[in-house]
Structure formats: structure tokens, C-alpha cells
């Protein structure tokens, strides 16, 4: 029992800091309006930015994929689990990214987390390599850098000058700069053009995790590289497919030689069962929507919703961070205050979880409001009215 007592003390310490997390159970498809724990809620917390998770065309493609390929892949890609659906999807991603990456080839993995681990542990497999990691990078990039044999140097958020000093001082045989494109808790964009210029000047790779940009950024939804008009053989690009694409998994796009190295050396790719082929088949429908006229319309509507929320919210004590993306963080301050605001919204049937340390820095607990192309303007107005009212209630003692 002493072992259990040790665990219970750890759990008590988490609870004492108001940092206990709990699971909520959704009884209906991912959409703005869901039945959660038996109650209908209007959610502003999913990453389904284009509203494709419940799109009839994507659902039909998933059903067709299951009928054609079965429920599972049966093995890892290099054993027998690499289906025609996987191959066709990878070919399509290679074509999509070919304007931005020389001799582009793509690899499909089960999750974005695994894709980031795969890239950094394979490229950073040697001790004479140095990884330069953005301070606000996602946990998967941080963990990938920690698991790599390369050295790691962290540069301050968005500080191109600091990164240039670090690159200039480094004598590493290979240098890897890694950054999110859209920072998941702040919603702002990395200065990718400046970062790429630095990498080309210093002979470094630029690894871009476009988890929150793919499908949303760019005229045709091809992500941050299209948004900024970037093209370089120095780029290694990761796109997550469980967010704007509405399904699951992730892909890595890079020069064909880089992808071949990952096939041979990336343990998160080699030693795991391939994702169900039906998911890869369904993603073809997602890409048809993202790259077509409907995708253009959905991105335009999403941008209009972002503007609506920013116009309607009038925070005085709280801070709405500057963001042009679907991620609209409202910084409350203390953990307890953020929890009270989230609870106040929940009472009104609005689902916006509080984000607390260690996900964000101490003193910056926040509501991470995420908008979706399936939201309406009236639903956004409803959220803004509720937040404005909660901030004006002194009895809640929200600082």
C-alpha cells in the first residue's frame, strides 16, 4: 500500500494547486453543439477549425474506406500495414507541398506527437548535432528534442536576433531550428520568413510544426508555407490531420532523402502499427474540401467570426491576446480565477476549459477560445455576451 500512498500524495499535491484535470465524455459527434456528460453544450474548445470532423462527405469517405480496407492495418508500415490508401495519401501530400519543398515526399504517421518525435529523434540522432528550439514550442517538440542525442538550445519566443546569435556561436556539424507555426496557447504566428533566411544562411534545417495552420492558413489551405510564400530545400514540414482536416494522424513533408532517412531510422514510425487505412482514405475527402471552393468559403467565414469576437469582447481586467487565427486566448491571470470563469460559462451551457500551468506560464491562466467554421455569428455573440457579463460581476472576485 505504500506504493499507492506515494501516488495519492502526488495526486493530492496536484489538487492542492487547483491543477487536477478531468475527462468529459462527449456523447455526440465533434461539432459546436455537443452532448457532453449528458448535457447539451455549445463548445469553443475543439481544434476542428473548418468543421470537417462531422462533414457528411468525410464521414461517407470513412465508411467507404472501412468497407474497402477493413477496420485496422494489422501491422507496422514496414511489415505489412502500408496500404494503398496510405500510399495515395502520401503521394497527394507530396504534390501539395512540392511548390514549397524541393523533391518533396511525404510520410503519414498515426499522430502529430509521433511525427514530431520521429523528425527530431531521426535528424538529431548524432551528438554533433544541435537543436535550436522555440521557447513556446508544443510539448511534442520539446519531448522530441529531449529524446534526441543532439544538444538542445532554447531561444526566446519569436526572438530572431537571439537565435542568430546562437546559430553563429554554434560549431555543430548539423543545426536544426524547430518551431510551431501557430502557437497553440497564444494563437500568434512564428516569424517563419526570417527563420528560414537564418537557416539558409547558416546551413540549418527549419522544422515547422504546422499543426494549427494546415488547412486554415494559405489561399488554398496548404498551411504556413503557402501563407508566407516560402520555398526552400531546408524545410521539414509537419501537418496535423486531426484538427482542420477533421480526421486524424499527421504527415511529414521534406526532400525525398530526408523522408527516406525517416523510413529507415525514425523509431516512432518503424515500431508502431500503421493507422487504419480508412482514416487515410477519409482524408482524401478532407483535402478535396480544404483545397476546393468550399474550403475557401469556410476559411472566409472563420476569419469573419474571429473579427466578430474581437469586436464584441470588451475585456478591461482580462487580456485578449493579439491573434488573427482561430485560437483566441483570453488571459485571466490566476488559476482559481480562470476556473471560476470557465465554471460560470459552463453554467450557461458554454464549454471553454481553463488552461493552467504547466501548459502556460504561472500567472497567465486563460481561456483558450477556439472558433470553428461551423459556428454561427449568433453563437459567437452569445459567448461574447457571457464573457462580458462575467467580467462585470464583482462577486466573482476575478482578478
Mean pLDDT: 96
Number of domains: 2
Fraction of residues in H or I helices: 40-55%
Q: Regions with pLDDT < 50 over 5+ consecutive residues?
A: none
Q: What does the oligomeric state look like here?
A: single chain
Shape: globular
Number of helices: 15
Look at the helices and sheets and give the structural class.
alpha/beta
Can you characterise this structure?
The chain has 399 residues and is of the alpha/beta class. The protein has 2 domains: 25-54 and 293-396, Alpha-Beta Complex (Aspartate Aminotransferase, domain 1); 56-290, Type I PLP-dependent aspartate aminotransferase-like (Major domain) (Aspartate Aminotransferase, domain 2), CATH 3.40.640.10. Helix content is 43%, strand content 18%. It has 15 helices and 14 strands. The protein has helices spanning 2-16, 56-69, 77-81, 84-97, 112-123, 139-147, 160-169, 192-202, 224-228, 256-265, 267-270, 277-290, 293-312, 335-347, 377-391, and strands at residues 33-36, 39-43, 104-109, 129-134, 151-155, 174-180, 204-209, 235-240, 250-255, 319-320, 327-333, 350-351, 354-355, 365-370. The strands form 3 sheets. Strands 3-9-8-7-6-4-5 form a 7-stranded mixed β-sheet, sandwiched between helices. Helix 2 runs antiparallel to helix 12 (277-290) and helix 5 (112-123) packs parallel to helix 6. The radius of gyration is 22 Å and the shape is globular. It starts with a helix and ends in an 8-residue tail after the last helix. The mean pLDDT is 96.
